[in-house]
Every structure is written in structure tokens, then in C-alpha cells.
Specification:
The protein has 289 residues and is an alpha/beta fold. It is 37% helix and 17% strand. The chain has two domains: 90 residues, Arc Repressor Mutant, subunit A (Orthogonal Bundle), CATH 1.10.10; 180 residues, Dna Topoisomerase Vi A Subunit, Chain: A, domain 2.
Length: 289
């Protein structure tokens, strides 16, 4: 059984001499156990109302240490309230590394097919393409790409894995490719903190457009642009998916609400041909077949 934060905070209050807390605020299996063990006492005020108080402060300290591994209640509460609680700190305050759901990894993977200049914690370095590898950026708050780089968000995993086979699409820019997986707010938080332009490379379908509009455009404003390759109509006619168009039609964005003219024209194109196009078609080995 784990000690929840809100009960630990109530126990802090009860440590102060003469304090009583309404029983309605102390409803939890941990409290029931402490009442059964005589660490907490209950004062019944009426049939439905009661107050809980502490029998002995010293006994509480021993009880918390023996039953929950909590050696210092004040430190326990302080650490649980901290945004940067680590598993190591959880073990130190309670002996339990899973005391609270903690994201051990934060950040996102990046990929390149040619070297790009970046800075990490104030130090300049060259991000190099390594076949079969991604670079995972955990300390993203201190990861700063060269201002000349365009950040390209890649929606699908296969495209991200084989980005070098799609280099023909990005001849006019110096790209750094980022993945939206694992799903978190880290990528968007980083994008908002840097000045680089953002190009969203996703499925050319209604779902892909909605992901871009709601997750990126809404946060980045004019810095965000939806990428529409010049081969789009050719590939739409050759490889377009009519069944997926029909499936997604009910979630199609109203083009009158879309600020980007090219994206409005893409929506018109999808409706014209009654097909959508999945991003994987742009991987060179598929497109050239």
C-alpha cells in the first residue's frame, strides 16, 4: 500500500498539536489501516460526521518508517510536490522507485541524411548521419540547431527510419528531421522555444491535416507550414487510397477555416479525386517502382 500525497499532507497537519481533520477528508484505505492500528483516532460528532486526530506524533513517525519507508514526512511531501522527482529520489524518501508515475525518458529522436550544425548545453557539435541509428535528444531544452536549419516533423515511423530515401523532396532546404513519437508535449515545447521554421511532413489525408492543425499549427502559428511535395497530384492519381478517403471524409477539415492557401488547395485536390495519399508512398524505393 502506498501513501498518497493528499493523505501525507493531512498527516502533516495532524502533527500540529490539537489539530483535528474532518473524517470526510480522510477517506482512504491507508487511513482505515492507521485507525485500525491505533495511530489515528476518530471522534464521532454525529451519525454522519466525524473528526480524525493523531494519538501520538512520535508513534506516527515510527509507523510511517516501518510501514511506508518514510523517514521524514515533510521531506516526503516536498519531494512529491516537486516537478523533477526522480526514481532515485523516490527510493530515498520511501524505498519505492514507483512511488509516482515518472517519465524516465523525456525528449524525442532526430534524424539527418547530411551533417547539420547544432549546440548542446552551449557546446557546438555536428549531428552526423549514422546508418541504422537515430539520435535521441533528452536534454531538449539545451538543444539548439543552427538558425539556417528547417525542422521537418515526420509523422510516420517508416518515413522517419528511411529519411535518406526521401532526400529528393528536400533539395532546397537544410533539414533536421524530428519524430512525434514517443507521444508527448516535449517536441512542441521545444519547437516553440526555437526560432527555426517548421515543416510538417505527414499523411496527405484528412487525419494528417488534423494532426498538423491541432498539434502544431495551433501552437506555432506562421512558423508552421504543411509540406505538400510537388509530386502530390501525380502520386495521388497513381497511388491514392479511395477507401481511406471515404473512411475519413466525416473528419475532413473545413477548408474555409484553414489559413494556408496551399493546404486549402490540397483539401480541394483530395475532394476532386476522392482519394487520399499516405506518406510512405514518398519513400524513393516505392515512388520509383
Amino acid at each position: 500500500m502506498k501513501m498518497p500525497l493528499h493523505i501525507a499532507q493531512k498527516l502533516q497537519q495532524l502533527q500540529q498539536a490539537g489539530q483535528l481533520i474532518s473524517g470526510s477528508l480522510m477517506r482512504h484505505a491507508v487511513v482505515d489501516k492507521m485507525l485500525d492500528d491505533g495511530i489515528l483516532l476518530k471522534k464521532q460528532l454525529s451519525k454522519t460526521k466525524s473528526q480524525v486526530y493523531l494519538a501520538n506524533a512520535g508513534a506516527l513517525q515510527d509507523y510511517l518508517h516501518n510501514h511506508f519507508g518514510i523517514g521524514d514526512l515533510d521531506l516526503f511531501v516536498k519531494k512529491l510536490l516537486a516537478d523533477d522527482l526522480t526514481r532515485a529520489a523516490s527510493v530515498q524518501i520511501s524505498g519505492d522507485s514507483k512511488l509516482r508515475n515518472i517519465r524516465t525518458f523525456s525528449g524525442f529522436p532526430v534524424n539527418v541524411y547530411e551533417p547539420v550544425q547544432c549546440r548542446m548545453q552551449g557546446q557546438s557539435f555536428m549531428l552526423q548521419p549514422l546508418p541504422g541509428c537515430f539520435t535521441f535528444i533528452q536534454d531538449y531544452n539545451n538543444f539548439i540547431p543552427d538558425p539556417a536549419i528547417t525542422i521537418v516533423g515526420v509523422e510516420n515511423a517508416e518515413n522517419f527510419s528511411h529519411i535518406e530515401k526521401q532526400a529528393y523532396l528536400f533539395k532546397d532546404i537544410q533539414p533536421l528531421f524530428v519524430s512525434r513519437y514517443p507521444q508527448s508535449n516535449d517536441l512542441v515545447k521545444w519547437l516553440k522555444a526555437i526560432p527555426n521554421p517548421y515543416l510538417h511532413f505527414g499523411d496527405l489525408d484528412f487525419e494528417g491535416i488534423n494532426i498538423y492543425l491541432h498539434e502544431y499549427k495551433s501552437q506555432l502559428g506562421e512558423r508552421g507550414v504543411f509540406f505538400i511535395p510537388e509530386q502530390t497530384e501525380e502520386f495521388l492519381l497513381k497511388f491514392g487510397n479511395r477507401a481511406l478517403f471515404n473512411k475519413q471524409l466525416s473528419s475532413a477539415a473545413d477548408k474555409t477555416t484553414i489559413a494556408e492557401k496551399p493546404l486549402r488547395e490540397l483539401v480541394e485536390l483530395l475532394h476532386l479525386h476522392k482519394k487520399v495519399l499516405e506518406q510512405e508512398v514518398f519513400i524513393e524505393r516505392i515512388a520509383s517502382s
